[in-house]
Design goal:
With about 575 residues, this protein is of the alpha/beta class. It is built from 20 helices and 15 strands. It has helices spanning about 1-15, 25-35, 40, 75-85, 100-110, 155-175, 185-200, 240-245, 280-285, 290-310, 315-350, 355-365, 370-380, 390-400, 410-420, 425-435, 450-460, 475-485, 515-530, 545-565, and strands at about 20-25, 45-50, 60-70, 90-95, 115-120, 130, 135, 180, 220-225, 255, 270, 505-510, 515, 535-540, 545. α4 runs parallel beside α5 (about 100-110), α6 packs across α7 and α16 (about 425-435) packs across α20 (about 545-565).
């Protein structure tokens, strides 16, 4: 995923020679930043990187050519028309991040009265490349797509269409024409799968890729719904990338460290990118314990290098140091960054008692023991030092697990939250309306069938080596079945055609409602275990941590309440 986007950017920068300026929109700015740093772009004879709407602020610079990389939207076309009618640069090379409608091209051609457009191309980088096998569309509020269509406002319609565009861009970038299947229990997944299929058919001239060896199964696009697994976004994470997002937050590879006590000015915002940080790439899926060991080794290696470089007793020593200085300086910055991030994670783990919280979370998510879990939950809620948001997450996990259990104590737990002045107790009912047992299509807790109960019992009896990482994302089994060609038509039907029963070599999983970094780590482990046999790509409308998931649930509650209070809702 990272490579496909980077190749497009490289081609833009190589095709337009001499000094140039890059003009972007808000989304393509983020898309570019995921694979290229601003410094790297400026090193490619790019004089300036600017938003499309700001071109008039610099006056005319006719000695520069403009690389325009934008989404093919009406708003961008209107801005381009104004720019072409009154150009600020000598030449414009237009690169659209997805399929551009012929009508838009016609409008741009009419606006180009000065004949300054040098080329127009479609480069399908219409998604945010996160990891080598993970992408997002950065669409918050996508949980609201789960509402009945007659409750959608303009925002939901735009998100639905934008999500479909992003998946089409991904398919074109990866050069695949897939068979499309979806979670049968989700009307949203079905509607989305059909939308993508219609787009593939309407752009059939673009989807003429070779299908591989004769008899090979087609690539698979599997559309899933977040509501089938509301547990994963609520859990504390213990691998590096996932921990940083859960406890601090990652936004387009940037991490805001400004709240860390005593943080150096140059470390108040750091970048964690798998495309240009070898330590991060190697350890992003490492658990917290192994990460600490790796950080220590990195620090030891740096100190060894530093001592070597202090012995500058000759001109040759100095020259050698100067030659190695960029590498040395980069290593120094990298060490400082990762030591600071891991130090802040450690502080937050202690401050929020995450070891205790996570252990109970895992019990609620993975094991069936109502009496013991309810008692432990009561004791934890009585601890005044427990963060209210962590208390809320624990009660949500209890509500999801024991929603239909006779004699559950959800009312008591809500009362304890209210006693803690938690103003979001209503979100518990919201998550049950969104993803309660009646709404979920699958067997989230593995106990609806006799064989599921036996499998769960066997897991419990075997014991788990690490009590903090018992949980496996619900979709892991679904992906395993897809890779083996064992998905059932009853649970994951095809949009059209007959489902293949052959093992799939290429599987693209798209989750409406968002994904998590725990799921990204799960997919990375699958790809590593099945290297050479299959390749799984994971994408979603958003990348959640528990905070963003609760925020979306709050928006969902507001929409539902607004609809119920409206004349149409009544």
């Amino acid at each position: 995923i990272l490579t496909s986007t980077r190749v497009y950017i490289d081609r833009m920068l190589n095709e337009v020679t001499d000094m140039k300026i890059m003009l972007l929109d808000t989304e393509t700015t983020g898309i570019l930043s995921m694979v290229y740093t601003q410094t790297q772009v400026l090193q490619r004879q790019v004089y300036l990187v600017e938003h499309m709407k700001n071109t008039s602020q610099h006056g005319r610079m006719m000695h520069l050519k403009a690389i325009v990389f934008v989404r093919p939207t009406l708003a961008n076309v209107e801005m381009l028309k104004k720019e072409l009618a009154d150009p600020h640069f000598s030449q414009y090379h237009l690169y659209f991040s997805n399929v551009i409608p012929p009508d838009y091209l016609s409008q741009l051609a009419k606006a180009d009265i000065h004949e300054v457009v040098g080329s127009v191309q479609e480069f399908y980088a219409d998604f945010y490349a996160v990891n080598v096998d993970t992408f997002t569309l950065n669409l918050p509020s996508s949980l609201a797509l789960s509402l009945p269509r007659d409750m959608w406002g303009g925002g939901q319609e735009r998100n639905f269409d934008r999500a479909a565009d992003g998946v089409i861009g991904l398919l074109l970038a990866q050069k695949v024409k897939p068979q499309i299947r979806y979670a049968a229990g989700s009307d949203l997944a079905k509607a989305f799968a059909r939308k993508v299929q219609q787009s593939v058919l309407s752009e059939s001239a673009l989807f003429t890729f070779r299908s591989g060896a004769a008899g090979a199964p087609p690539p698979l696009l599997l559309v899933l719904d977040r509501k089938d697994d509301p547990i994963t976004p609520l859990l504390t994470q213990w691998t590096y990338q996932a921990m940083v997002h859960e406890m601090i937050g990652i936004n387009d590879n940037r991490v805001d460290m400004s709240r860390a006590p005593g943080i150096r000015k140059d470390l108040k915002e750091v970048v964690l990118s798998p495309s240009d940080d070898t330590f991060y790439t190697k350890h992003m899926y490492a658990n917290f314990g192994d990460l600490g060991v790796a950080i220590k080794e990195l620090l030891t290696r740096y100190q060894h290098e530093f001592k070597d470089n202090q012995n500058l007793s000759s001109i040759d020593d100095m020259q050698s140091f100067i030659e190695r200085y960029p590498e040395f300086r980069a290593m120094s910055t990298n060490v400082s960054k990762h030591v600071a991030v891991v130090g802040e994670l450690s502080r937050l783990v202690d401050q929020h008692k995450m070891m205790d919280v996570s252990q109970l979370e895992q019990e609620l998510a993975c094991n069936e023991d109502h009496a013991a879990q309810f008692k432990a939950l009561q004791e934890m809620l009585a601890d005044g030092t427990l963060a209210t948001v962590d208390a809320l997450r624990l009660v949500m996990l209890y509500a999801l697990h024991y929603e239909t259990k006779s004699g559950n104590q959800l009312g008591t737990l809500k009362g304890l939250l209210a006693d803690r002045n938690c103003d979001q107790v209503g979100l518990i009912d919201t998550i049950l309306r969104y993803a309660g047992q009646a709404q979920r299509g699958g067997d989230l807790y593995g106990n609806k069938t006799f064989m599921g109960s036996i499998a769960k019992l066997a897991t419990n009896l075997k014991g788990v080596e690490n009590v903090y990482t018992q949980h496996v994302p619900y979709f892991a089994d679904t992906i395993e079945q897809a890779v083996k060609g064992r998905l059932k038509d009853s649970t994951h039907p095809c949009v059209s055609g007959v489902a293949t029963t052959k093992p799939a070599r290429d599987v693209i999983v798209f989750v409406i409602g968002g994904i998590t970094y725990e799921e990204a780590a799960c997919v990375a482990r699958m790809n590593k275990a099945n290297a050479g046999k299959c390749n799984v790509v994971l994408g979603g409308t958003f990348i959640h941590n528990s905070k963003s998931f609760l925020t979306e649930l709050s928006r969902l509650k507001d929409i539902q309440q607004g609809y119920a209070g409206s004349e149409f809702g009544r």
